[in-house]
Specification:
109 residues, alpha+beta, six-stranded mixed β-sheet, 29% helix, globular
């Protein structure tokens, strides 16, 4: 049965996560083949990915990548992707590949 999987991009400029981008696929196969598929398409998908807003504090400042990393270490980074998950109507605990784009450079394998 096909599963909705996502390529998600962290758009980082000057050390801050200024937005997210995402592209979805409906794919069959095991998790390893899906992850491989997402990684292989990461650079290609970027230009076609939808843009989503990154959170800002009350001063209008974006989340620093350092703070994002702390959330990631605690397994809490997915809370930031709720808008993306809702938009693509993915099930709980979706399979995603997160790729940083730092000052315009896509860091993909």
């Amino acid at each position: 049965m096909p599963e909705t999987i996502l390529n998600i991009y962290l758009i980082i400029e000057k050390g801050n996560v200024i937005s997210f981008r995402a592209k979805s696929y409906s794919v069959e196969g095991d998790d390893n083949s899906k992850i491989k598929f997402l990684k292989e398409n990461a650079k290609i998908d970027f230009n076609e990915a939808m843009t989503f807003q990154s959170p800002q504090n009350s001063k209008g400042e974006f989340l620093s990548y350092k703070k994002f990393s702390k959330l990631e270490k605690q397994g809490m980074q997915f809370q930031l992707f709720e808008e993306i998950f809702n938009h693509f109507q993915v099930p709980q605990n979706p399979l995603v590949c997160v790729t940083p784009v730092v000052d315009g450079e896509i860091y993909s394998q």
